[in-house]
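User: My advisor asked me to double-check a structure prediction for Response regulator before group meeting. I don't want to rely on an old file, so could you generate it fresh from this sequence?
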Amino acid sequence: MAARKLLLIEDEPQLRLNTADLLELSGYRVQTAGSGKEGVQLALTDKPDLVLCDVMMPGLDGYGVLQIFSHHPDLMAIPFIFLTAKAERADLRKGMELGADDYLTKPFGEAELIGAIETRLRLADQRRSPANTAHTLGDFLNDVQHRDGLASLAANRVGHPIKRRKVIYAEGDDPTKIYFVQSGKVRTQRENAEGKELVTGLYGPGDFFGYTALLENRSYEDTALALEDSTLCYIPKDDFLNLLFCHADVARSFIKLLANTIADQERQLLGLAYNSLRKRVASGLLKYVRRFQAESGTALTVSLTREELGMLSGTATESLIRTLGDFRDEGIIDLRDGKIVVTDPGRLERLKW
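Assistant: Sure, here is a fresh prediction for Response regulator from the sequence you gave:
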């Protein structure tokens, strides 16, 4: 197999020479350019398999080079790695928004550099390979639901039983996987400085959760636990990221999931800040009912303890109990076998205060 061809764009001569020597010793063919403009011209003349590009350069800087690549049909699919002495979050975000595949901060080690290059070349090969185009998100969801089609994932292909109230991950843990709910119900919650807990998400069969922290490469800021006996599928971090990198439609679907999650949380925060007590309790009941109303036989039954419902609606337990009593007296809910049954969801929807 012919050596892979890399284009190194770096305006500092000694660093450019040293990096090129290292890459050639590692078995790559290397073209070098001392400016952004020269790098673009070289790429158009002799298309590389991957680009390593400095950010801060006179004239056409790295961001400008990437912008040209991302809009040129012959260059846009080439893996692009930024090399930079800057590691500010805003700089990283700007590069990723423009379409950079990776970001190495100077000084970087040999293993770090070669590892990043090998990873990006491998993912680019997978994107081009017809054998690796079978799993869109729709296929993946269908496979999970039928429990027999996870062959494309490397590990943890079986459902894992989780007992009611068991913690799945805790605030401060590092994400190593995302979770898919095969059966049961899961909630996520956060605790403020005063120790007050608030439910931030409800998840049931067919839902993914735990992906936000993984995508942002940070520790969990919430805790997840099972609301009832559940079965979860674990998708390892590397397999999940490979799936995103290899399938644009999967990436778009998860971006949509992330956007919807953020929008839901913003609406919840606004409601907690400005709604009356009755409205907050009504919103908590409706949130649960809407999420799980498709389950046969439990369409309008809220299987939460009073404490859990208080966390969902941002309400003290004592105030919640009084409000539920009012709703029962008004015929909006009923209490059956210790569970809340919403008998008039329309009135909950119409509550203005």
